[in-house]
């Protein structure tokens, strides 16, 4: 299938990039370069190898973009997206270290690239990015999996609230946004964590995402009322199969697929 083609090809390209980098580093460590000409020749061939690996990396990035365009954004795809960018930065650092004869600083470059990868995930708000990108896809006529979005963490609610207030002005995707908010709020007990019978949250378990979600939820219900974000239950025997109505159709709040 198209999905198998994209995933397998992407994995193969990343594997080639990583092993090529390890090959270059291993040869750089083991090869004896006693004369200036030998050093220059090795550096030139090494830079050429890393440059070709960069071409492979660009190809894998484009393949991932195609995959996301067809099937939408998920956490794993977003993590991989960011990973490719920082792997590209690391390859560039390898070239610069080789040019300036600073190969011994490679471990530092790896550490900084790893920290940059982690920090980027914090800054971009992965779940919020997934919401924005998938709604952008839906605006172009692609399918929007409301159940999948509703299964994400509290980090999506500020992004959803922003899109809701924009949709009130434009009238675009208003029902879909309202449906996701309704499902997500039901999944999270309307963000009243202190009322959860199975776990009591105290000041020692303060979480910024939960706090921000509660503020966004309060702004939504103050503006539109809590009834607007209600879900429906088929009957008492199916209390976990709640749904929302969008464009006259019943849409389940449960994710339809397992995403990778």
Could you describe the 3D structure shown?
Helices cover 67% and strands 3% of the residues. It has helices at 2-30, 36-71, 75-99, 106-124, 126-139, 146-150, 156-170, 174-187, 208-224; strands at 243-246, 249-252. The chain has a two-stranded antiparallel ribbon. The chain starts with a helix and ends in an 8-residue tail after the last strand.
Describe the main β-sheet briefly.
2 strands, antiparallel
SS-derived structural category: mainly alpha
Shape: elongated
Question: Residue ranges: pLDDT <50 for 5 or more in a row?
Answer: none
Total beta strand runs: 2
Proportion in helices: 55-70%
> Between the first and last Cα atoms, what is the distance in angstroms?
15 Å
* Oligomeric organization of the protein chains: single chain
Arithmetic mean of pLDDT: 87
Indicate the radius of gyration in whole angstroms.
Answer: 24 Å
The SSE order reads HHHHHHHHHEE
Q: Indicate the proportion of strand residues.
A: under 5%
| Neighbour order of strands in the largest sheet | 1-2
Number of helical elements = 9
Summarize the structure.
The chain is mainly alpha-helical and 260 residues long.
Which characteristics define this entry?
mainly alpha, 67% helix, elongated, single chain, 260 residues, two-stranded antiparallel ribbon, 9 helices
Helices and strands in order:
Elements lengths: L1 H29 L5 H36 L3 H25 L6 H19 L1 H14 L6 H5 L5 H15 L3 H14 L20 H17 L18 E4 L2 E4 L8
Antiparallel strand pairs: 1-2
Helix pairs in contact: 1-2, 2-3, 3-4, 5-7, 7-8, 7-9
